Amino acid sequence: MEKIAFFIGPLPFYWYGLILSFAILAALLVTVWQARLRREDVRRVLDLFLYGIPIGFFFARLYYVFLNWQLYVAEPARSLSLASGGFVLDGALASIVVFLYFYAKRHRLSVGRWLDIAAPGLALGHAIGLWARIMNEEGFGRPTDSPRGFYIDFAHRPETYQEFDFFEPVCLYSSGWSSLLFLFLLVAVFIQIRTGRLKPGSIFLLYIVLFSLGRFIFEGLRLDLDYVVGLPVTQIFSGILGFGALALFLWLHYQPVFSNERPQRWSGL
Fold this sequence. Notes:
Blueprint: E1 4-8, E2 11-14, H1 15-37, H2 42-67, H3 89-106, H4 111-135, E3 150-151, E4 166-167, H5 170-195, H6 202-219, E5 227-228, E6 231-232, H7 233-253
């Protein structure tokens, strides 16, 4: 599959970078919309993206290098090469959440409220961004003869599967899951703003629970997994994260003193 979309003079533009850029733009627009629904200052969103995106990319790359250290131990300088991809969403997500927490605390904003504002944009950005991995022929599953099979170039096939041409498009499944999750979160936002039954932080926790469920299911189909004590690292992480978020969600709704914010009336779409 062709990795370069087009050239401007001698400068190549890769599908990977173009798709990630579009994913970031879509996430930004959705987050601005969510902030306006809650009558928050949109400039806060621009601040969060201006600082949060570079931090997210740094930790997404750092986590990828950590998981694939054997590829870089002989040539550490290769870890700085981003043209061929190599990012893990878990690292970006964790770093962005931590950054948003400290940003909200510094500016005396509601952490839960702003996490809710960010959640739908994160879901949509992930759904779009996974197509960059598809174009890079990453994160595929076992060989398949079904019509949904995705052709993988010989150079990107694992050594033990080089005689096969088509593989399960795991990233496509994950993208579809995140797209459905985005729509589900919009419904949850409507319920939260219209009725006030979902407390601040609930939308984000629901996002983490369902995101982790999808990761646990679909990541287990991939061939390029890293294992610890016989279990895939991504599934361990997703399981812990999902159960932790579910526990917090249940605790939040049985602890009315967690937030003293009043429910807001629906301000329209």
